[in-house]
Automatic annotation (TrEMBL):
<keyword id="KW-0325">Glycoprotein</keyword>
<keyword id="KW-0472">Membrane</keyword>
<dbReference type="InterPro" id="IPR050174">
    <property type="entry name" value="Protocadherin/Cadherin-CA"/>
</dbReference>
<dbReference type="Pfam" id="PF16492">
    <property type="entry name" value="Cadherin_C_2"/>
</dbReference>
<feature type="domain" description="Cadherin">
    <location>
        <begin position="247"/>
        <end position="356"/>
    </location>
</feature>
<keyword id="KW-0106">Calcium</keyword>
<dbReference type="InterPro" id="IPR015919">
    <property type="entry name" value="Cadherin-like_sf"/>
</dbReference>
<feature type="region of interest" description="Disordered">
    <location>
        <begin position="474"/>
        <end position="497"/>
    </location>
</feature>
<keyword id="KW-0812">Transmembrane</keyword>
<feature type="domain" description="Cadherin">
    <location>
        <begin position="37"/>
        <end position="141"/>
    </location>
</feature>
<keyword id="KW-1133">Transmembrane helix</keyword>
<feature type="domain" description="Cadherin">
    <location>
        <begin position="2"/>
        <end position="36"/>
    </location>
</feature>
<dbReference type="GO" id="GO:0005509">
    <property type="term" value="F:calcium ion binding"/>
</dbReference>
<feature type="domain" description="Cadherin">
    <location>
        <begin position="149"/>
        <end position="246"/>
    </location>
</feature>
<dbReference type="GO" id="GO:0007156">
    <property type="term" value="P:homophilic cell adhesion via plasma membrane adhesion molecules"/>
</dbReference>
<feature type="transmembrane region" description="Helical">
    <location>
        <begin position="391"/>
        <end position="413"/>
    </location>
</feature>
<protein>
    <submittedName>
        <fullName>PCDGA protein</fullName>
    </submittedName>
</protein>
Length: 497
């Protein structure tokens, strides 16, 4: 408002004046538009910001008063998605998060806001909301192609599965590392960018592991890292790579002779580690002959069970042992086989009566020529033999007596010679040395050795005189005496002329 003073004066003398105060009130007119404090607002928020959070507050002022100066805020020309994600308070100018933000969906949002007063005047500004990435997405593994079955003879390097791995996050949060879990005969190879392939790393063996659940694990580079996994189920198909194996290295059995035809001898059993038809085992006998006849005529083996049967009654006196081979063959193509040795011992039984070998049996109506006849009056112990047999017995007895007499004569001559060697000739001096008595057995082998010391005095004519010896002194060692200057030799008596 404005205050004025109005003064009025007349024309008299003195002049008279009068004053009046005038207050002029200026009424407002909507002649000012609202003005934002910033032409552009910029804000950065993480994508995991909670719903309802205030992102930014916009402000605008209007110089007018009253209704003309009241400002209200609103969005101006924004997308439908932006209107769903954000809300604007028309009174305060606060922009709030209405839904969860997703960096992977849209990383930046540009909003236009408007400030309008009570009249028709308004102003606009731009709000740029940048959404920053957060590691909120796990790696995704998609199997493009995969095998369900694989043969155990597949060579190493065979492709089993093709995978595509991706992470929707950015930078380090989106970097994925893949690996296989556990000790499996497979490895993971990167083929192109985010594509991987699973290949066999070594030979497979169905007999050890028949099925595999290959787990592929993917982890990103976030902090903390997020990871996911996919499982590939793979069944290993059998190949006939195992021959039948017998439960024992060799078999042996005992069978009493005179057995019944078709008697069970024993059962052989072999197992095959393969599967299905490749593991089906059949048994057969290897070729052989017994006493010129085929082995198959003596024994047989049941093809399915491996039971061994005797086809005929066996006789210990004819066949005491059967040595045979049983072959086990599987049902693969080509078939694999193995052999085992079977020893069958025939046990003897008392099934034969004694037979008189001599004299032979007399023919019917003939004379028993091998029989010696003895008179009825013969005494007990008398030799029941003919004259020829009697003379043979006497001749054997005579020869035995002569042989015994010869042995005694040889023994006597040897003793006599030994005795004469103990005597010295008459012209010999004192006895030098010590005679040795030998105890001799019948076979002439020296049995004992014992030394005796004797003192003997001889004269020239005492050769045939009786010698007298002093008491024998048995000792283990001979006394040592120093020899004379010219020792007389120990003479051996010569045979008289």
């Amino acid at each position: 408002f404005h205050e004025l003073v109005l003064r009025a004066s007349d024309g008299g003398d003195p002049a008279r004046t009068g004053t009046a105060r005038i207050r002029v009130t200026v009424l407002d007119a909507n002649d000012n538009a609202p003005v934002f404090s910033q032409a552009e607002y910029t804000v950065r928020v993480p994508e995991d910001v909670p719903v309802g959070s205030v992102l930014v507050t916009i402000t605008a002022t209007d110089a007018d008063e009253g209704l003309n100066g009241q400002v209200k805020y609103s969005f101006h020309k924004i997308s439908d998605r932006a209107s769903e994600l954000f809300c604007l308070d028309s009174e305060t100018g606060e922009i709030n998060v209405n839904e969860n933000l997703d960096f992977e969906e849209l990383s930046s949002h540009e909003l236009k806001v408007q400030a309008r007063d009570g009249g028709e005047l308004s102003d606009t500004a731009k709000v740029v909301i940048t959404v920053t990435d957060v590691n909120d997405n796990v790696p995704e593994i998609s199997v493009q192609s995969a095998l369900n079955e694989i043969s155990e003879d597949t060579p190493p390097g065979t492709v089993v599965a093709l995978l595509h791995v991706q992470d929707r996050d950015s930078r380090a949060n989106g970097e994925v590392r893949c690996s296989l879990e556990g000790d499996v005969p497979f490895r993971l190879e990167k083929s192109y960018e985010d594509y991987y392939r699973v290949v066999t790393a070594r030979e497979l063996d169905r007999e050890q592991v028949s099925e595999y659940n290959v787990t592929v694990r993917a982890a990103d580079g976030g902090s903390p890292p997020l990871q996911s996994s996919a499982v590939l189920a793979l069944r290993v198909l059998d190949v006939n790579d195992n021959a039948p194996v017998f439960e024992e290295e060799r078999y042996s059995a005992r069978l009493a002779e005179n057995n019944a035809a078709g008697a069970l001898v024993l059962r052989v059993r072999a197992t095959d580690a393969d599967w299905g038809q490749n593991a089906r085992v059949r048994y057969r006998l290897s070729e052989g002959r017994v006493r010129g006849a085929p082995l198959s005529s003596y024994v047989s083996v049941q093809a399915e069970t491996g039971a061994l049967y005797a086809l005929r009654s066996l006789d210990y006196e004819e066949v005491r042992e059967l040595q045979l081979w049983v072959c086990a063959e599987d049902g693969g193509a080509p078939a694999l086989s193995s052999n085992v040795s079977v020893r069958l011992l025939i046990v003897d039984e008392n099934d034969n009566a004694p037979q008189v070998l001599y004299p032979p049996a007399a023919p019917s109506g003939g004379v028993w020529s091998g029989v010696e006849l003895a008179p009825r009056s013969s005494e007990a112990g008398a030799l029941a033999a003919g004259s020829l047999t009697r003379w043979l017995v006497l001749a054997v007895a005579a020869v035995s007596c002569l042989f015994l007499a010869l042995l005694l004569l040889l023994l006597a001559l040897r003793l006599r010679r030994w005795h004469r060697q103990q005597l010295l000739p008459a012209n010999s001096g004192a006895l030098r040395g010590v005679p040795v008595s030998h105890f001799v057995g019948m076979d002439g082998v020296r049995a004992f050795l014992q030394s005796y010391s004797h003192e003997v005095s001889l004269t020239a004519d005492s050769r045939k005189s009786q010698l007298r010896f002093s008491g024998a002194s048995c000792c283990d060692t001979l006394p040592a005496r120093p020899p004379p200057d010219d020792p007389a030799p120990l003479l051996r008596e010569e045979e008289p002329a």
